[in-house]
Write a structure and sequence with these properties.
Length: about 120
């Protein structure tokens, strides 16, 4: 009977020292501590632009990103922190470019359930 031994593959990358791993984890933790908050804004006017939406929502706090889906009548605004988003959520019905808009927490597509609903074309 012939027996063949199989050897495990060699490591081609150098192993990290535990100190390097800890340092990298600390940096990633610091980044993730600053939680950004994304809100859904429904019922946008066809006149709404990213600039006008950013200007309207910046009164609540620092706006990181604005996305306007003009043809779909909704958009998203992302704040630098949850506190600013909470302030915006206190006013669920707001006026923007002549339209009454609904402001709700954004829900990722993967989570299922109610995603904040569509906004329609807005009230021009």
């Amino acid at each position: 009977a012939c027996s063949t031994k199989f050897l495990p593959p060699f490591h081609t990358q150098p192993l990290k020292r535990s100190g390097e791993n800890k340092k990298q984890q600390d940096q990633e933790t610091k980044k993730s501590n600053k939680i950004m908050a994304k809100l859904f804004v429904g019922g946008l006017s066809s006149r709404t632009t990213e600039e006008s939406m950013k200007l309207a929502f910046s009164r609540f706090g620092d706006v990181k990103e604005v996305i306007v889906m003009k043809e779909r009548g909704f958009g998203f605004v992302t704040f630098e922190d949850q506190e600013a988003a909470d302030k915006a959520l206190e006013e669920t019905r707001q006026e923007l470019d002549g339209s009454k808009v609904d402001v709700k927490p954004a829900v990722s597509k993967g989570s299922g359930g109610d995603r904040g609903g569509g906004g329609g074309g807005g009230n021009e």
